[in-house]
Amino acid sequence: MLESRSTPPRVWLFAALALATAVVVIIGPTLFDRFTLNVLTRSMIYAMLAVTVDILWGYTGILTFGQAAFFGTGAYASAMVLSHLGASPALMVLALALAIIVPVLLGAFVGWLSFGHGSTPLYATVISLVVPIVVTQLVFSGGVWTGSSSGLVGYSGLPLGLPGYFRLTGICLIVTTLVALVFTRSDAGKLLVAIRDNEARCAYLGLDPQRLKIVLTTILAGVAGVAGFLYANASGVVAPENTGFVFGTEIVIWTALGGRGTIIGPVMGAIGIDYLSAQLSGDLPFLWNLVVGSLFVVMIILLPNGLAQLARMVLPRRNGEQASQPGCPTLTAEPAGNGSQPGNRVLAVSGLGKSFGSLQVLQGIDLDVHPGELVSLVGPNGAGKTTLLRCLSDGTEATTGTVTIAGQDISGMTPDEIVALGVGRKFQVASVFDSLTVADCLRMARASRKAPSLLRRSAMLGLPAAAADILRSTGLDRMLGRPVSLLSHGQKQSLELAMVVALEPKLILLDEPTAGLTKVERTTIGATLQKLTGELGFAAILVEHDLDFVRNISTRIVVLHQGKLVLDGSVDQVVNSEVVRTIYSGGAHA
Fold first, then answer.
1. Spatial distance between the Cα atoms of 469 and 43, rounded to a whole number of angstroms
2. Which of 423, 418, 397, 410 minimizes the C-alpha distance to 349?
3. Are the C-beta atoms of residues 318 and 7 closer than 8 Å to each other?
4. How many CA atoms lie within 13 A of 199 on its CB side?
5. How confident is the prediction along the chain (590 residues), in pLDDT tens digits per residue?
6. ABC transporter domain location, by residue (predicted)?
7. How many CB atoms lie within 10 A of CB 286?
8. How crowded is residue 37: how many other Cβ atoms within 10 Å of its Cβ?
């Protein structure tokens, strides 16, 4: 068990901001005139939308213009009930329910379209542009039900009055902001950053990024629907402009200028820019767009990271807690065990073939791997070694033949599903999460086994003994709070290996894990691999070019040449083989 006390969030700062905002919300109606109350009420509703955009774009990396469609759908669902059915307490509850349910259903559908298998970030952004247009056209064609181009107006809403709406929207904004801050700083919130940084690595840690993004889109659509309900009641009018992509683009701009990836920045950006626009449109009716646009340009030049950059200048961020500080961290070992039984095949490959068009990359590969074996896969460049690893770890690759892991055919299975069978893959270039700390990366590796908390940062980092040993032997146990972006190449390679081992796999696939490492680092990695296989019973397939390194640690060596398995034998058999000498011109390198 690896214990790490994470740097606590600035709770006092959040509490102070929340308290100050609550005071303003409570006493605001006695301080502001009706115009200001009206504008700030609308601005706070828009700020709720900006929070949802920030979670999607700033944290998860999904640039979306579609939140306006969910907002408008919620607003129209409310207004249609209030206009055509009435505003009794029961109907008001119905209006709120529909304002949530309809956007949630739409969000689930949009999420499925945007993040289904094979989608790309560009495709998702295009979908987010198209959906508001479609929703707007549906509003236009809705006739008396939607008010067509005139919208809906004159219906009765919540009997709160302007001060009541100001206070209600203020409370909703405070709650939304605090929940977003708590979530994005929790262990589960770090999953969003992991997806943004390296979606492929998430999949190879047993996570399903596509499903997570669909769920996130669906939930945030519901939040946008609540904002739409508040807007429909507070304004007493809904119009097609509330659903359009122009409004969606404005929200993205507010988020960017406020400082994406901060939550508070987009809230301040939405409120400040919307309020400023409202003031200038009255004072400078023909020039206000030019003034606001000029301010945007100045801010982009001077504060490219938005208004939140000012806060970073005043309150510089800490680089994370270092293990040398009192109370952090303590390393203890858990009992080892990976679930593989001696004698049982972990991997069985039969007649595997792979081609890219007319180019045959792999042909008729037959290979068995058992627990405790370290099988080195060697061959010249272009022999198909990395392609073979990809076929063993991704069942969606178009191949012939069969690949069976732990007795199960992996044909059609996605990488996260194959990880669940007990496969861990390390890439040639260290595949980690540069925006996270060392400890956070290791938590991501355990997320598929234990759901991370939605509310807090854990002070405990539970790791298998084998993964903890890698951290100790490489010194990473003293760098748990260090951002991964500050690690050296060799440290990133060791961290990725520890992340893979933290999955407790039966089979580890390693693509040149010592590439670019120093002699000392290579020796450490070699000793680690020998211990994982020889003492702990892991099975491993190692792609490597250094024949001297291979001969010292391998159980068997498999030789690939022109996509064919030409030799599979003991270290001595392969190293002394005439076939190897012929292929490698005397066997200097493999």
1. 53
2. 410
3. yes
4. 17
5. 554 444 444 566 667 777 888 888 888 888 889 999 999 999 999 999 999 999 999 999 999 999 999 999 999 999 999 999 998 999 999 999 999 999 999 999 999 999 986 677 778 888 999 999 999 999 999 999 999 989 999 899 899 999 999 999 999 999 999 999 999 999 999 999 999 999 999 999 999 999 999 999 999 999 999 999 999 999 999 999 999 988 998 899 889 888 888 999 999 999 988 988 888 877 777 676 777 777 777 777 777 677 776 666 655 454 444 443 333 434 444 555 545 555 578 999 999 998 888 888 898 889 999 999 999 998 888 888 889 999 999 988 878 899 999 889 999 899 999 999 999 999 988 999 999 999 999 999 999 888 888 888 887 888 888 888 889 888 898 888 899 999 999 899 999 999 999 999 999 999 988 877 888 888 888 888 888 888 888 999 999 877 778 888 888 989 888 888 888 888 888 878 877 777 766 444 44
6. 347-587
7. 7
8. 18
**One-letter amino acid identity for 81?**
V
How far apart CA 563 and CA 579 sit, in angstroms, is: 15
| Token output for 369 | 């791997």
Owner of token pair 């064609």: 141
Angle at 124 between CA 122 and CA 127, to 5 degrees: 110
Q: Domains of the chain (ranges plus CATH)? A: 13-314 (1.10.3470), 347-450+463-583 (3.40.50.300)
